[in-house]
Amino acid sequence: MMARECGSLPTSLWAVDLSEKRAEEFARKGKIFLIGDITTDSVRRFLELLEIAKDHTPDDGVIVTYISSLGGDLFGGFCIYDALRACKASTSTFGLGVCASAALLALQGGDARLLSERAWIMLHEPISSIEGSASEIEYEANLMRRLSDLMVRVFSGRTGLPEEKIRSMMIPKETWLSGEEALSLGFVDGLVGERGVRKAKKRRR
């Protein structure tokens, strides 16, 4: 089952033609590529491709989203996560290279979460670059704390780790995890390498 959830990986991810037409052709085959920064435009395009994939995926099929991103817009990350969790078709997310910040949220959205054995993940508390009055900065800081709490709940729910453990990995410093570490802590369900897929021990969701 896990092999089918993984799909077939292109020989070179960066050589994949992701033009509008080709991206839609991939989506009809149940493959979506989320490469680069998570932005309003990339999230909108992801949602469009997800709808195409759902329309062309058989009942026993799996929609695979390949992710390689250093992150970006946090709300975009939540949007992708929610869209995948709400998808009635079976979904799999496959992290390649790096899934950091908002991209790690997106990775958590798949029913099955896979990671290349040489890929890395990163989690941290939300960052804001707001400037303004003391009251404006205080308001923004409160919002960042609320968003941080929401991220903690998502990661805790998907890994089975206590919220306190997740919070300690985000604050005061970011935490980078190798594929092996991500697997052992439950951020992914399997590592993909030359010898196939190595699964994690079952964890509470």
Query: What share of the residues lie within helices?
Result: 40-55%
Residue runs with pLDDT of under 50 for 5 or more positions: none
The fraction of residues assigned to DSSP E strands is 15-25%
Shape: globular
Alpha carbon gyration radius: 17 Å
State the distance separating the first and last CA atoms. 19 Å
Mean pLDDT: 90
**What structural class do the secondary elements suggest?**
alpha/beta
Order of helices and strands: HHEHEHEHEEHHEHEE
Give a quick account of the main beta sheet: strands, pairing sense, barrel closure: 8 strands, mixed
Give the tally of β-strands.
8
**Oligomer, anyone?**
single chain
Helical segment tally?
Answer: 8
Give the secondary structure arrangement, pairings included.
Layout: H1 2-6, H2 20-28, E1 31-35, H3 40-56, E2 62-69, H4 74-86, E3 90-100, H5 102-107, E4 112-116, E5 120-123, H6 134-159, H7 163-170, E6 175-178, H8 179-185, E7 190-193, E8 196-199
Parallel strand pairs: 1-2, 2-3, 3-4, 3-5, 4-7
Antiparallel strand pairs: 5-6, 7-8
Helix pairs in contact: 2-3, 3-4, 6-7
Structure description:
- The protein is an alpha/beta fold.
- It is 44% helix and 22% strand.
- Strands 1, 2, 3, 4, 5, 6, 7 and 8 form an eight-stranded mixed β-sheet that branches.
- The mean pLDDT is 90.
Compact description:
The chain is an alpha/beta fold and 205 residues long. It has helices at 2-6, 20-28, 40-56, 74-86, 102-107, 134-159, 163-170, 179-185, and strands at 31-35, 62-69, 90-100, 112-116, 120-123, 175-178, 190-193, 196-199. The chain is 44% helix and 22% strand.
